[in-house]
Structure formats: C-alpha cells, structure tokens
Write a structure and sequence with these properties.
Elements lengths: L10 H22 L4 H17 L13 H27 L7 E7 L5 H13 L3 E7 L4 E7 L4 H22 L2 H12 L8
Antiparallel strand pairs: 1-3, 2-3
Helix pairs in contact: 1-2, 3-5, 4-5
Length: 194
C-alpha cells in the first residue's frame, strides 16, 4: 500500500515553503521578544494556522542563501536595535527639546513582495520608526519616524531603510535582485541618479 499525500500538497512544495514557515516562527518569537520553548511552540501553532487556514499563494523563494550576508544582517540588526533603543530613550529623557517627527516615503529597488515585507518588518522592529503603508505597485514604503530635525535627518532615515533592503537582498535575494541592487548602488557614482 502506498501512503497518500493530501490533495494539492507535493513534497517539493513542502520543502520550498519550509524556510517561510521557519521565518514565521522566528518572527513570532521576535515579536514577543522571547526565545523560549513556549514561544517556539506557540510560534509553530500560529505558523501552522496561518499557512493552513489562510491559503496564501505559495511564496517563491530565490533558492539562494548567502550565509556571510545573513550574518552581516543579523549583527547589524542587533546593533541597530541597541542603538535605536538608546537613541529613543535619550530623545524621551532630553527635556530641552521635543524629538521631531516625519512621515517619509522610501522607494525600494526590488519589486519582490517577500523582500519588501522583510525590509518593512526590519524597519518597523528598530525603535524610532514604524511602517504606515507599503505601496506594492510603486515599490514605496511609508514610515513614521522620530528624531528628525532637518532634511539631512530624513535622508539618513531613508538611506537606512534602503540599506536594510540591500542587506536582505544580499542575504536571500536572487542573483538578478543582487545585480539590480549593485546597479542601483553604482548609479549615483556614475551620475545615473534621477
């Protein structure tokens, strides 16, 4: 007798979706700020619920993972979390002036939904900024940021989000996306910026 697989689920689909499933569990644990067995088990339950109840279209992963750039992303993210927390704490405690706020638009280079989602989540997890909207068609993220006093501060915030996009693409993007990011980074140096 042969074991029957559920209709519509192939072994290849399960393996392709496994990184997404693992990412959902990790995201759950990050959102709760706990790396415990309870957080892991509840993350698995939520990931199963999300992937089984809400039938999303399959996520097409690039099939490419660069461990070096993944480590760069993780360490830079941890550093940004610490720095962002200290900066926001200082802005709250500095009674001499109120921290300025702004809503900024950040154009992205890639047009991949997963890269856009990773970039948006990363930018939102760092204290001092929050994603308000993601315009999928125009590849623009809108953020509310605090601690801005000038146009230069706004440009720094925008460049920071674009740096996260580069880090995500270098870690898990396709070769075409990596080339697109490299071309975009080279454009200002060659005068190709619009």
């Amino acid at each position: 007798m042969s074991a029957e697989r559920p209709v519509g689920v192939t072994k290849g689909q399960v393996w392709r979706q496994l990184p997404f499933f693992v990412w959902l569990v990790a995201l759950w644990m990050l959102l709760w700020g706990q790396f415990t067995i309870v957080a892991f088990v509840s993350g698995v339950v939520v990931a199963v619920f999300v992937t089984r109840v809400y039938r999303l279209p399959p996520v097409e992963l690039s099939g490419r993972v660069n461990v070096w750039w993944g480590l760069v992303f993780v360490f830079e993210f941890i550093g940004s979390l610490v720095l962002g927390s200290l900066t926001v704490a200082w802005q709250v405690l500095d009674l001499r002036r109120q921290p300025g706020t702004a809503i900024i638009a950040v154009p992205l280079v890639t047009d991949d939904d997963l890269i856009m989602a990773h970039t948006a989540v990363t930018a939102s997890l760092i204290p001092g900024s929050l994603i308000l909207e993601a315009d999928r068609d125009r590849r623009i993220l809108y953020l509310h940021v605090i601690g801005v006093r000038s146009a230069l501060d706004i440009e720094k915030q925008r460049a920071g989000v674009q740096r996260w996009e580069r880090r995500v693409v270098m870690a898990v993007g396709s070769r075409a996306q990596v080339q697109k990011i490299r071309d975009a980074a080279a454009a200002p140096r060659t005068g190709g910026r619009a």
